[in-house]
Write a structure and sequence with these properties.
This protein starts with a helix and ends with a strand. With 72 residues, it is of the alpha+beta class. Strand 2 and strand 3 form a beta hairpin. The protein has 1 helix and 4 strands. 21% of the residues lie in helices and 22% in strands. It is elongated and about 80 Å long. It has one helix at residues 2-16; strands at residues 48-50, 53-57, 60-64, 67-69.
Length: 72
């Protein structure tokens, strides 16, 4: 009998407890095709070329140019 009371209390708490669910769907425009950039000569030993990419910027995309960098 005591076990039934505990199950009832748990069920009552689950039914009356506030719950929320949020579903967010974004249907947007994909970024444009990747641009081809001819890599310049490396600035020095140990540098690698990092390709450019389209970066989200508000409701559109902005091209970020490739660059030479030292790997971490």
């Amino acid at each position: 009998m005591r076990l039934a009371w505990m199950y009832g209390a748990v069920l009552a708490t689950a039914i009356t407890a506030p719950s929320s669910a949020q579903v967010s769907v974004y249907i947007g425009v994909p970024p444009p095709a990747i641009r081809y950039e001819e890599p310049p000569p490396v600035p020095g030993p140990g540098f690698i070329w990092v390709e450019g990419y389209w970066r989200p910027f508000g409701h559109h995309y902005r091209w970020m140019k490739g660059t030479g960098t030292v790997p971490v």
